[in-house]
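dude i think i finally got it to work??
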Amino acid sequence: MELRHQQVTRYAAPLREGGSLPALAEADDGFSYVVKFRGAGHGTKALVAELIGGEVARALGFRVPEQVLLDVGEEFGRTEPDPEIQDLLKASRGLNLGLHFLPGAFTVDPWVNGIDEVTATRIVWLDSFLTNVDRTTLNTNMLMWKGELWLIDHGASLFFHHSWRNLEEAPLSPFPFIKDHALLRRASALEETDRWMRQHITPRTLDKIVDLVPDEWLLHDGSDETPAQVRRVYKHFLTERLKNSRIFVDEAVRARKFLLS
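look at this
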C-alpha cells in the first residue's frame, strides 16, 4: 500500500466551490488533479483527514479518485496574478495532496440520483466511523462519473484532531452530526451493515493507511510530539472506534428514527 509521488507542473484553475480553495493542476505524469493545498484553511490536518478518509473508503470498496502526493516547487505560481492564490501557493511549497480529476463528473443529488439502500447505509456507516461532518444535502461530496458513484472530499473527517484533546475519549464519540447526513433516510440496515463493515476492514489495514501519511504533515505547531507519536494517536483513534462501532451505529439508528418520525 503506497501513494505515487509526482511534481506539479502547471496550475490550471482555482476551484472555488470549497472554502479551502483547491485547484485543478497538471503534474509531470501528464494527468490532471484536484489539488488540496497544505497552505489552506486547516493546513496539513485537512490533508491527513483527506488521505486517511479516502483510503479507508477505498479499502471498504467505495470508488475514490486515486490520491497522489504532489510536490509544489519554489518557483510554482510566481506568474499567478491573483494575490490570494499566489500567497496560497507560496505557503504550500512541499508535499500536497492530489486527487485524480474526473472530467465530466457531476454532483450527486440524493433526491434525484437513485442510491440503493445498501450503498447508502454503508456510506452513512463510513462517515460515522470517520466522523465526517461534510456529506449533507447542501454538499453531498459524491460524484457520478461514467454511471458510477464516487466519494470525494474527506478533509472534514477526524475532526477530533483540530482540538487534540481528550484523546482517549475521542474514539468513543457517538457522532451526533450524523443527523444531517444526506443519505440517512435511506440507511435502513445499519446493524447488518455494521457487521459487514467490521468484517471488511481490520486494524492492520487501518495501521497501513495511517502509515501512508507523510511525516511532515504530522508536525503540529506548538507541539513537541514526534510524527511517530502523532501517528500512534491516529491509529489508536481508528482501531478503538472500529472496536466500539456499536456506539456510533446506535446513534445513527436513533437519529434516523427521529428523522422519519
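The helical segments are 44-59, 83-90, 117-130, 190-200, 203-211, 227-243, 245-260.
im so relieved honestly
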